[in-house]
Amino acid sequence: MPIFYTPTLTFSSKELTISNSEFKHIKNTLRKKIGDILVTTNGKGLLAECVITDISARSMILEVQATSTKEKSHPHIALAFSLLKQHNELIIEKCTELGIYEFFPFFAERNVKTSLSTHQFERLEKVAIAAIKQCDSVHLPKIHKPLAFKKLLENLSQNYYPVLAWEEENRQGLHEVLEYANKDICLIVGPEGGFEKQEVDFAKEHSTQIVSLGNHILRAETAAITIAANTIFYQLERDSAFY
Ligand code: SAH
Q: Which domain holds residue 33?
């Protein structure tokens, strides 16, 4: 059953009013009627089973019948990615589907794209909402406002175990560094033209592990999806080994 996004849902909600684009989709596309059951999430781990009790021209009322929660898996995996000329939405969509909980867009030395408008930022948030609905996730990833790369690294290392993908690294692989992750992980992927050597050195000075993703030079969006998928599935397998 599809999940709908209702950010106003709380544990104590008895009724919800839907009047935005979701309303048009539910009423006109899905042709839902009074008495139909809908499942909604607030994007913060809360799920609600609701029944439609009223439909008017511009909104509908849902009665909340039951709620449940879904915990985030641990450790949380975040992705820091250099804003690209294209394909930022692809990165957000695919990595949200994979289970990335937080995005840190940044600007590196060799960035082609050097700004992100409010409209473009809101587009990324809309893509993330569509992605959690599509993959039945109840955790809407947080997308942070873009930072300069060095500023981001200064902020990251207190709360995250940073792992940076560098195509010139030829020794250290991803799984060997993941084994030593002792807190939430932040994966880092650079711009179309790659990182400057001094950016990689700066990352090392901020406790960042540098890893190779193999001998092929991947496009930035491919590298982002690849490192996210490998990290998430590595953690899943490691966790299941503990049951
Ligand atoms: N510097 C390369 C392209 C960089 S690809 C060139 O000019 O052709 C963009 C980003 O993807 C890189 O900054 C890096 O973070 C990541 N990446 C691509 N291939 C990689 C690999 N084989 N190993 C590690 N990271 C890689």
A: 3-69
